[in-house]
Amino acid sequence: MQRWVKTSRLDALGQVDDTIRAVEKKATTSPALELDKVTFAYDSQPVVSELSLSIKAGSFLGLLGPNGSGKTTLIQLLCGALRAGSGSVKVINRGISDWDRRELARLVAVVPQRFELAFPFTVEQVVLLGRLPHRGSLALDGPDDLLAAEEAMQATGVLHLRRRRMHELSGGEFKRVVVAKALAQKPRILLLDEPAAHLDIRHQVTLYDLIGKIRNKTGVTVVSAMHDLNLAAAYCDVIALLKNGELLCVGGVEEVMTYRNLRDVFEIDIYVGVNELTGHRLFTPMLSGSPEEE
Fold this sequence. Notes:
This protein has helices at residues 2-27, 71-79, 101-107, 123-128, 143-156, 171-184, 201-218, 229-235, 253-256, 259-266; strands at 33-42, 45-55, 60-64, 86-91, 108-111, 189-193, 221-226, 238-243, 246-251, 270-274, 281-285. The chain has one domain (2-293): Rossmann fold (3-Layer(aba) Sandwich). It has ten helices and eleven strands. The longest helix has 26 residues, at 2-27. Helix 1 packs across helix 3 (101-107) and helix 5 runs antiparallel to helix 6. With 294 residues, the chain is α/β, with parallel strands linked by helices. Mean pLDDT is 87; it is low at 1-10.
Protein backbone atom coordinates (compact mmCIF):
# COMPACT_ATOMS: atom_id res chain seq x y z
CA MET A 1 0.00 0.00 0.00
CA GLN A 2 2.80 2.41 0.91
CA ARG A 3 4.54 1.62 -2.36
CA TRP A 4 1.33 2.40 -4.30
CA VAL A 5 0.90 5.75 -2.54
CA LYS A 6 4.51 6.70 -3.18
CA THR A 7 4.26 5.70 -6.84
CA SER A 8 1.02 7.64 -7.25
CA ARG A 9 2.64 10.77 -5.88
CA LEU A 10 5.59 10.36 -8.22
CA ASP A 11 3.22 9.84 -11.14
CA ALA A 12 1.33 13.00 -10.21
CA LEU A 13 4.56 15.00 -10.04
CA GLY A 14 5.61 13.54 -13.38
CA GLN A 15 2.35 14.70 -14.94
CA VAL A 16 2.97 18.18 -13.56
CA ASP A 17 6.46 18.12 -15.08
CA ASP A 18 5.02 17.18 -18.47
CA THR A 19 2.52 20.02 -18.26
CA ILE A 20 5.18 22.55 -17.27
CA ARG A 21 7.48 21.46 -20.11
CA ALA A 22 4.64 21.89 -22.59
CA VAL A 23 3.91 25.32 -21.17
CA GLU A 24 7.54 26.40 -21.35
CA LYS A 25 7.51 25.72 -25.09
CA LYS A 26 4.67 28.23 -25.41
CA ALA A 27 6.10 30.69 -22.90
CA THR A 28 8.40 32.41 -25.37
CA THR A 29 5.65 33.13 -27.91
CA SER A 30 2.48 33.57 -25.86
CA PRO A 31 1.79 36.47 -23.48
CA ALA A 32 2.91 35.50 -20.01
CA LEU A 33 -0.16 37.07 -18.41
CA GLU A 34 -3.43 38.42 -19.76
CA LEU A 35 -6.30 40.21 -18.08
CA ASP A 36 -9.52 40.83 -19.98
CA LYS A 37 -12.04 43.25 -18.47
CA VAL A 38 -11.18 42.11 -14.94
CA THR A 39 -13.22 43.52 -12.08
CA PHE A 40 -12.74 42.95 -8.36
CA ALA A 41 -14.39 44.44 -5.28
CA TYR A 42 -14.03 44.22 -1.50
CA ASP A 43 -17.42 44.27 0.22
CA SER A 44 -19.05 45.65 -2.94
CA GLN A 45 -16.43 48.44 -3.08
CA PRO A 46 -14.76 48.27 -6.54
CA VAL A 47 -10.97 48.05 -6.40
CA VAL A 48 -10.23 46.95 -9.98
CA SER A 49 -12.58 48.03 -12.76
CA GLU A 50 -12.81 46.58 -16.28
CA LEU A 51 -9.03 46.22 -16.46
CA SER A 52 -7.46 44.66 -19.58
CA LEU A 53 -3.72 44.11 -19.88
CA SER A 54 -1.42 41.79 -21.84
CA ILE A 55 2.09 41.21 -20.47
CA LYS A 56 4.71 39.95 -22.90
CA ALA A 57 6.85 36.99 -21.87
CA GLY A 58 10.30 38.06 -20.66
CA SER A 59 9.33 41.68 -20.05
CA PHE A 60 9.78 43.73 -16.87
CA LEU A 61 6.54 45.59 -16.21
CA GLY A 62 6.25 48.19 -13.48
CA LEU A 63 2.86 48.90 -11.92
CA LEU A 64 2.73 52.54 -10.84
CA GLY A 65 0.00 54.49 -9.11
CA PRO A 66 -0.93 56.15 -5.83
CA ASN A 67 -1.91 54.23 -2.71
CA GLY A 68 -5.24 52.52 -3.21
CA SER A 69 -4.92 52.42 -7.00
CA GLY A 70 -5.20 48.61 -7.09
CA LYS A 71 -1.56 47.53 -7.50
CA THR A 72 -1.51 44.96 -4.69
CA THR A 73 -4.93 43.62 -5.65
CA LEU A 74 -3.75 43.20 -9.22
CA ILE A 75 -0.69 41.23 -8.06
CA GLN A 76 -2.98 38.95 -6.03
CA LEU A 77 -5.28 38.44 -9.01
CA LEU A 78 -2.33 37.54 -11.23
CA CYS A 79 -1.08 34.84 -8.85
CA GLY A 80 -4.53 33.42 -8.10
CA ALA A 81 -4.67 34.52 -4.45
CA LEU A 82 -7.82 36.45 -5.38
CA ARG A 83 -10.44 35.48 -7.96
CA ALA A 84 -11.84 38.10 -10.30
CA GLY A 85 -15.47 39.03 -9.82
CA SER A 86 -15.82 39.24 -13.59
CA GLY A 87 -13.53 39.05 -16.61
CA SER A 88 -10.71 36.58 -17.11
CA VAL A 89 -7.10 36.15 -15.99
CA LYS A 90 -4.86 33.94 -18.10
CA VAL A 91 -1.42 32.54 -17.36
CA ILE A 92 0.35 31.56 -20.59
CA ASN A 93 -2.85 31.22 -22.65
CA ARG A 94 -4.76 29.30 -19.99
CA GLY A 95 -7.38 30.52 -17.53
CA ILE A 96 -5.86 30.85 -14.09
CA SER A 97 -8.60 28.76 -12.46
CA ASP A 98 -7.90 25.94 -14.95
CA TRP A 99 -4.41 25.45 -13.59
CA ASP A 100 -3.76 22.85 -10.93
CA ARG A 101 -2.48 24.66 -7.84
CA ARG A 102 0.83 22.81 -7.93
CA GLU A 103 1.29 23.61 -11.62
CA LEU A 104 0.54 27.27 -11.03
CA ALA A 105 2.94 27.43 -8.08
CA ARG A 106 5.71 26.10 -10.29
CA LEU A 107 5.05 28.76 -12.90
CA VAL A 108 4.39 31.83 -10.74
CA ALA A 109 6.33 33.03 -7.70
CA VAL A 110 5.39 35.98 -5.51
CA VAL A 111 7.44 38.31 -3.34
CA PRO A 112 4.83 39.97 -1.08
CA GLN A 113 5.04 43.32 0.70
CA ARG A 114 5.19 41.57 4.05
CA PHE A 115 6.52 38.10 4.79
CA GLU A 116 5.82 36.99 8.34
CA LEU A 117 7.10 33.88 10.06
CA ALA A 118 5.58 32.21 13.10
CA PHE A 119 8.68 30.13 13.82
CA PRO A 120 12.41 30.93 14.01
CA PHE A 121 13.31 29.47 10.62
CA THR A 122 16.81 29.65 9.25
CA VAL A 123 17.53 31.32 5.92
CA GLU A 124 18.01 27.96 4.22
CA GLN A 125 14.74 26.59 5.61
CA VAL A 126 12.83 29.59 4.25
CA VAL A 127 14.44 29.32 0.81
CA LEU A 128 13.60 25.60 0.70
CA LEU A 129 9.93 26.49 1.17
CA GLY A 130 10.10 27.59 -2.45
CA ARG A 131 10.67 23.97 -3.45
CA LEU A 132 7.35 22.69 -2.05
CA PRO A 133 5.61 22.73 -5.48
CA HIS A 134 8.38 20.50 -6.87
CA ARG A 135 8.01 17.65 -4.43
CA GLY A 136 5.33 15.58 -2.72
CA SER A 137 3.67 17.10 0.32
CA LEU A 138 5.36 14.66 2.71
CA ALA A 139 8.63 14.24 0.82
CA LEU A 140 11.95 15.38 2.25
CA ASP A 141 14.26 17.83 0.51
CA GLY A 142 16.10 15.98 -2.24
CA PRO A 143 19.37 16.76 -4.03
CA ASP A 144 17.59 18.85 -6.68
CA ASP A 145 15.85 20.91 -3.98
CA LEU A 146 19.06 21.53 -2.06
CA LEU A 147 20.87 22.51 -5.26
CA ALA A 148 18.09 24.89 -6.34
CA ALA A 149 18.07 26.52 -2.89
CA GLU A 150 21.86 26.88 -2.89
CA GLU A 151 21.82 28.44 -6.36
CA ALA A 152 19.08 30.88 -5.29
CA MET A 153 20.98 31.87 -2.15
CA GLN A 154 24.18 32.29 -4.18
CA ALA A 155 22.39 34.47 -6.75
CA THR A 156 20.93 36.72 -4.06
CA GLY A 157 24.11 36.94 -1.99
CA VAL A 158 22.75 35.26 1.14
CA LEU A 159 24.50 31.90 0.95
CA HIS A 160 26.82 32.85 3.81
CA LEU A 161 23.73 33.47 5.95
CA ARG A 162 22.15 30.07 5.36
CA ARG A 163 22.36 29.03 9.03
CA ARG A 164 21.21 32.36 10.44
CA ARG A 165 17.70 32.81 11.85
CA MET A 166 15.48 35.13 9.87
CA HIS A 167 14.84 37.44 12.84
CA GLU A 168 18.59 38.07 13.05
CA LEU A 169 18.79 39.62 9.57
CA SER A 170 18.79 43.24 8.48
CA GLY A 171 15.94 44.55 6.33
CA GLY A 172 17.96 44.24 3.13
CA GLU A 173 19.11 40.71 3.95
CA PHE A 174 15.55 39.66 4.82
CA LYS A 175 14.23 40.92 1.47
CA ARG A 176 16.94 39.10 -0.44
CA VAL A 177 16.06 35.84 1.32
CA VAL A 178 12.40 36.22 0.33
CA VAL A 179 13.52 36.81 -3.27
CA ALA A 180 15.75 33.71 -3.00
CA LYS A 181 12.75 31.67 -1.88
CA ALA A 182 10.85 32.82 -4.97
CA LEU A 183 13.80 32.01 -7.25
CA ALA A 184 14.12 28.52 -5.76
CA GLN A 185 10.69 27.82 -7.27
CA LYS A 186 12.30 28.19 -10.72
CA PRO A 187 9.29 30.24 -11.89
CA ARG A 188 8.53 31.53 -15.37
CA ILE A 189 6.78 34.56 -13.85
CA LEU A 190 7.94 36.62 -10.86
CA LEU A 191 5.42 38.94 -9.16
CA LEU A 192 6.81 41.56 -6.78
CA ASP A 193 4.66 43.69 -4.49
CA GLU A 194 6.78 46.73 -3.63
CA PRO A 195 9.84 44.56 -2.83
CA ALA A 196 12.02 47.59 -2.02
CA ALA A 197 9.62 49.11 0.52
CA HIS A 198 11.34 50.21 3.77
CA LEU A 199 14.84 49.71 2.30
CA ASP A 200 17.42 52.48 2.02
CA ILE A 201 18.36 53.63 -1.48
CA ARG A 202 21.50 51.45 -1.67
CA HIS A 203 19.56 48.30 -0.84
CA GLN A 204 16.77 49.30 -3.23
CA VAL A 205 19.24 49.60 -6.10
CA THR A 206 21.00 46.38 -5.08
CA LEU A 207 17.69 44.51 -5.05
CA TYR A 208 16.55 45.74 -8.46
CA ASP A 209 20.03 45.15 -9.91
CA LEU A 210 19.70 41.55 -8.74
CA ILE A 211 16.22 41.13 -10.21
CA GLY A 212 17.36 42.64 -13.50
CA LYS A 213 20.34 40.30 -13.76
CA ILE A 214 18.19 37.26 -13.00
CA ARG A 215 15.67 38.33 -15.62
CA ASN A 216 18.39 38.79 -18.24
CA LYS A 217 19.89 35.39 -17.41
CA THR A 218 16.71 33.30 -17.16
CA GLY A 219 14.15 35.17 -19.28
CA VAL A 220 11.68 35.24 -16.37
CA THR A 221 8.78 37.66 -16.75
CA VAL A 222 8.75 40.26 -13.96
CA VAL A 223 5.80 42.31 -12.77
CA SER A 224 6.52 44.70 -9.92
CA ALA A 225 4.28 47.09 -8.03
CA MET A 226 6.47 50.14 -7.37
CA HIS A 227 6.38 53.60 -5.82
CA ASP A 228 9.73 55.03 -6.89
CA LEU A 229 9.40 56.58 -10.34
CA ASN A 230 13.16 56.78 -10.88
CA LEU A 231 13.71 53.09 -10.12
CA ALA A 232 10.82 52.18 -12.41
CA ALA A 233 12.31 54.20 -15.29
CA ALA A 234 15.74 52.65 -14.74
CA TYR A 235 14.73 48.99 -14.57
CA CYS A 236 11.37 48.48 -16.33
CA ASP A 237 10.83 48.24 -20.07
CA VAL A 238 7.04 48.51 -19.75
CA ILE A 239 5.06 50.78 -17.42
CA ALA A 240 1.38 50.52 -16.48
CA LEU A 241 -0.21 53.52 -14.75
CA LEU A 242 -3.14 52.77 -12.44
CA LYS A 243 -5.60 55.08 -10.73
CA ASN A 244 -8.72 54.14 -8.79
CA GLY A 245 -8.51 50.59 -10.07
CA GLU A 246 -8.41 51.59 -13.72
CA LEU A 247 -5.57 51.26 -16.21
CA LEU A 248 -4.87 54.74 -17.57
CA CYS A 249 -2.09 53.81 -19.98
CA VAL A 250 0.57 51.19 -20.65
CA GLY A 251 3.71 51.24 -22.79
CA GLY A 252 7.39 52.14 -22.78
CA VAL A 253 8.94 54.51 -20.25
CA GLU A 254 9.20 57.52 -22.56
CA GLU A 255 5.70 56.96 -23.92
CA VAL A 256 3.95 56.58 -20.56
CA MET A 257 6.01 58.45 -17.95
CA THR A 258 5.30 61.94 -19.26
CA TYR A 259 4.56 65.07 -17.26
CA ARG A 260 0.89 65.03 -18.29
CA ASN A 261 0.31 61.33 -17.52
CA LEU A 262 2.04 61.51 -14.15
CA ARG A 263 0.13 64.68 -13.29
CA ASP A 264 -3.16 62.93 -14.08
CA VAL A 265 -2.28 59.88 -11.99
CA PHE A 266 -0.59 61.40 -8.93
CA GLU A 267 -2.32 64.81 -8.99
CA ILE A 268 0.95 66.63 -8.40
CA ASP A 269 3.39 68.44 -10.67
CA ILE A 270 6.43 66.27 -11.34
CA TYR A 271 9.48 67.56 -13.21
CA VAL A 272 10.54 65.10 -15.93
CA GLY A 273 14.19 65.27 -16.99
CA VAL A 274 17.00 63.05 -18.24
CA ASN A 275 19.85 61.59 -16.19
CA GLU A 276 23.00 62.79 -17.96
CA LEU A 277 25.00 59.80 -16.71
CA THR A 278 22.65 56.94 -17.65
CA GLY A 279 20.24 58.48 -20.15
CA HIS A 280 17.27 57.34 -18.07
CA ARG A 281 14.41 59.67 -17.32
CA LEU A 282 14.40 61.22 -13.87
CA PHE A 283 11.53 62.62 -11.84
CA THR A 284 11.35 65.25 -9.11
CA PRO A 285 8.13 66.37 -7.37
CA MET A 286 7.66 70.13 -7.67
CA LEU A 287 6.87 72.19 -4.57
CA SER A 288 3.38 73.63 -4.56
CA GLY A 289 4.33 76.89 -2.87
CA SER A 290 6.63 78.68 -0.46
CA PRO A 291 6.61 78.04 3.33
CA GLU A 292 4.97 81.47 3.86
CA GLU A 293 1.90 80.30 1.93
CA GLU A 294 1.25 77.31 4.24
